[in-house]
Write a structure and sequence with these properties.
The protein has 163 residues and is an alpha+beta fold. Helix content is 40%, strand content 25%.
Amino acid sequence: MENNKKTYVSPIQSLDFYLQNYRDLCKKLKLDNELSELREVLKRDVATSVREVLQNSNYEALVVTDTNKNIIWVNNGFREMTGYSKSFAIGRKPSFLQGKKTSQETKEEIRLLIKQQKRFSKSLVNYRKNGEEYLCHIDVLPLYNSNKKVTHFLAMEKEQVAA
């Protein structure tokens, strides 16, 4: 007696393959859009090193400030993470997200690190529009013009979830 069983590829296995490709494509399109917006805001091209950092980082929100710490641009992820719209955030300092449980010591460390104009990472308690607190990890990059002068800071932000 012959075994006539045929082997089929499960649609679920196929979906896993396409789903990963779909996620990769969405990530690439998101990055391309954010780089385009950054170029427009900065009125210059974004350095290759910054593109590479963004490509290899796992962030939820992007915030660009000028050297006076005023927000000049945020990405769409900022609203998703904080509840605040782009139009509300622009023109304010990122400190509007801080509150009662935000460490004074961490705020001072961040101020000092910004003055040093070097890349740094820190975590601090921030507050969403609805008042809910969350632990925010920030990775801050200074952005340079063609004369090697710092003109802006780019913060890549991600909520840290307690393990």
